[in-house]
Batch of 2 targets.
Target 1
Amino acid sequence: LGTDNYTRIYEDGSVIFLEGESGDRAYVVEEGVVEIWCHRDNERVLLQELKPGAIFGEMSVIDGSPRSANASANGKTKLIEVTSHQLRSRLSNSDPIIQLLVKVLLERFRNERRVHRGDNLLSSTEVKANHLANLQQTGEDAIHKIRLEKELEVALQKEEFFLLYQPIVDLRDQRISGFEALIRWDNPLRGMINPAEFIELAEETRLIVPIGEWVVEQACADIAMLNSRFAAQENLFVNINFSGRQLMDKHFLKHLRKESERHSINPDLVNIEITEGIFLSGENLSDWLDESRTDGYKIVLDDFGTGYSSLSYLSKYPIDKVKVDKSFVQAMEKDASARAIIQAVIGIARAMNMTVVAEGVETSAQMKLCHDLGCEYGQGFLFGKPVTVDIVSEELSTSFPQNELALS
Ligand code: C2E
Ligand code: CA
Ligand code: CA
């Protein structure tokens, strides 16, 4: 008798599941008592008595093995059903090391129970093979992750990271106004690795803090060098990406201050790129955002339009620039709604005194549309791919030879 479609009431003594059955759901006891039991020498042996709040039946769902015991209601009992989909999607979204831990612990638990009972529940060879393959895959994923984590640590010590710079141009005359610093990892065995493959892991392991500090140090040194070399371009700015974990580190602003002072960079030329995701962290961001602003650093909201895009962030936090995500820029030629979104963002930004940067500009048609709609800045392969600081310097000396200081 179900009270709704996820809770179920069992009368006293009724069976919830039987040993050997395959399990497609787990249960949480909401009211009453559940008994977990097995047969030993034709006798009913009580293994566990579960009270409200306990979860049971999850083992079969996690590792696909048959139910290893019987479950029945002791008195009238109300259970919440947790479907295999609910359970598996959570597990598969979790860290591979946690998945491995869960599965290995389950395996150990089952083995102990088997030894204790003197039997072997994994009788079918097919079930056994599937089970082992599943465990092996989880193990391989976890090993891959642990290895990558170690390699990231070594990469930091051995200075295998480097920065590329992508120009950000003024759309009125397409002159370079500044650069976005983009990290790369030159791994001796695997070659060049893009940030998409390691930034997330660096965040999970908190290695993002020292990596991010290295990015700040390098980006400040490079932009100071470029600005001193190209005198009349003294106002070249640099955009640095910061992820949520970095910003939660209380020292981040102190470190940024120290590095920009060391290289005598006007904070006005350093743009802190953040994404909307950090506003969901629940952390109090207003303090450091206000402090950065007071120092003169600019805040750029990156990938705008993707994710949660709540306009309330724009009024709540002191944001100076918005970067319209490349997906809109790339769709705008054919898709009127993408165009409408960019137009709306520009309208809001204008009203709130923010600057708009169009990201991922690849064609002159996109550039023209962005400019016509009122974007001030553009970034994308049309203007230049990310390149090393040496190439940037070379290119600037061809574009602005008259600005280059004679190096004595
Ligand atoms: P992002 O901040 O959105 O950076 C822009 C990405 O778009 C870069 O990818 C860039 O190479 C790419 N891109 C630029 N112009 C175009 C274009 O015209 N067309 C297309 N299709 N793509 C374009 P990249 O360098 O692989 O960086 C990926 C992401 O990694 C960045 O996205 C950023 O979120 C993160 N990231 C990069 N460097 C750092 C860093 O130093 N620290 C942190 N925390 N994250 C970083
Ligand atoms: Ca960015
Ligand atoms: Ca972006």
Note: Residues 166, 182-183, 194-196, 199, 212, 215, 241-243, 302-303, 326, 360-362, 379-381, 386 surround C2E (ligand 1) (CB under 6 Å).
Target 2
Amino acid sequence: VVFVQVAVDVPVDKQFDYSAPDAGIEDIGRRVIVPFGRKRVLGVIVAVGRPATPTAQIKSVEAILRDDSRLPPDVLALLEFAADYYRHPIGQVVFAALPPALRRGRALTLHVEQHFRLTSQGREAKLPARAQRLRRTVETLRERGVQSAPELAAAGATAALLRDLIARGWIALTLEPERIYKKACTHLQLTAEQQEALDRIAPHLTEYGVWLLHGITGSGKTEVYLQLVERVLARGGQAMVLVPEINLTPQLEARFRARFPQVEQVSLHSNLAEVERAQRWLKASAGVARVVLGTRLAVFTPMPRLALVVVDEEHDASFKQNDGLRYSARDLAIYRAKARGAPVVLGSATPSLESYHHAQRGRYRMLTMSQRAHAQARLPAIRLVDLRVNNAEHGLTDPLTRALAGRLAAGEQSLVFINRRGYAPVLYCPHCAWTSGCPRCSVKLVFHRKDQRLWCHHCGHSEPPPRHCPSCGNADLQPLGEGTQRVEDALQRHFPPARILRIDRDAVRGRDAWHQVAQRVGSGEADILVGTQLLAKGHDFPRITLVGMLNVDAALVSPDFRATERLFSLMLQVAGRAGRGELPGEVLIQTTFPTHPLFDWVLRQDYAAFARALLIERKTTGFPPFVHHALLRIESANEEAAQEFARAAAAGARALNSGNITIYDAVPAPLARLAGRTRMQVLAESPSRTKLQEFLQTWQRELTAKNARHVRWALDVDPQEL
Ligand code: ADP
Ligand code: ZN
Ligand code: ZN
């Protein structure tokens, strides 16, 4: 008999042995139905070989799904690496990587449209003058190369005619990837910097290498990606392009489609119907889809001819998954490119300090683009508005409203950025200083004007606002601070005729909402955009000439050591929305701390100086990238249980530690209570990644052995938030 090792979606870090008489190594990566306890479950065969269990106890698989969904060896290796590195059970890693439709025991086949090409006979055949449909069909193929059945139907080909042409030996069925690759017409004259970036990567397209494309906003990084992808396609390869945000996919998708109309392209993200997502995955997996564009989850997509990986906005925190398998898609993308012998391009205007550090040390190669691509576009001028001397009313200061009025008069677009949706982040009693807190979390409830309710942005709790102060009975409760809704209201009162468009998660919901918003902005239907983070990333709206940032102070006083790094890139990203077209841009940043050193670099828009200074600081104080972190996250409905487990975990870690690892005391998480649960954390740190990995293995084993009841815990390797 043959034995197979199966990964099953259970929180136990092992593979399970089964016998499978007819299995062979070609079944590795296939889904199987197996008996598990008293149930039948779906699993994935990860190996074929000698069992670890005594053979008498081994049950046999019920069915192997020999469909199109097989995970290829390189993806399995990636998953095994991820399971090991992120200390997550292999079965759960495998299942997290599968599109949801494949997590069920149904067979799936790729629906491929039939494609036809001319044979040499067909190419030379003399066409009968009178057979109209036949002429048009053959001529279409002669003109365009490969065509799908529906495309030929449009030229008048009936099924009978196609059969007839096959019988004559004039046409043949073909797989789409063989589609003749026509050289894309590139309309843009590359800038010198774009050309140089391309020239440097081009000779290395068939080998592994990490390229850090550090290009300011609007320098034309996307054009560089497009031209690299083009070269890879011309050689028959597939390209993977990762972006941080679902909303960025449509714009980018459109650009890629326009550039490569003849190749199949799919985008993959969580906001797709299950069947559709599975079909796209299968297309990539069959090599039919040549370009895969997606959010972090796309990093696991099987691509047999993967030859280029691009990670756009590589610094973005959303490449890190924050629950379950806490992976970094950027880091896994690099691992994957390496295993594959393919280049990976990390693009950003404000690279993460980790990547920048690698580039400085020569592990990555740096490409710099410091000019905007559009001949007339320059970097916007950035000015600070000192909140100590300029009063803000509903978040808006005089200098900002004057600037807005100027743009309105000139018929140009403005963007007002504020990092909080809702009306006001807190309801406040001026009498006794009571504030509206979430009963289940350690945060304030945000007042939303539209539905007149208080909402918790963390746990989703909502309640009507009290009529009187619950603490002193005062009837005059007031909103404190600003959210997007309040700023929208205030702007509308200031500028009654202005067309104001609010862009946050409340306003932009559903599959097409973003697309519509982007179109309205692009076609100039809005004068002022009020938006959150959603607006900050990557979008190209050439008519925006003024950007106001209302509230950046919180990050300047945050205890998280990454807060300033994130704020810096946020400010440059948001500023990057201004002046992308022919009109010059201006940025006003309102702050109470205008003398904070961060603003020196922001005003000069000097990422390199900022990065150098911060890296020196990180080195002297001993923070990443000079040390590596792993965070034990603990939560429990029982406060004491959480504290007790955290204390014991820290003590246990210290006992295990053979030097090289620093274990910090157990502390409450920044969000100390979430949805009624107490959250604690223990930080482990080491200058050596290997040592830290070794330590985590034993620590995890000990923690598991505690069999803690009422406590949930997870290790977060390379945590992005502390
Ligand atoms: P980035 O991704 O670096 O922010 P984009 O690739 O979105 O920049 O380019 C910014 C703008 O400049 C886009 O409107 C793009 O069409 C335009 N652009 C890019 N490259 C060129 C070029 N070589 N010549 C003219 N315009 C360009
Ligand atoms: Zn009160
Ligand atoms: Zn809450």
Note: Confidence is low (pLDDT under 50) at residues 177-181.
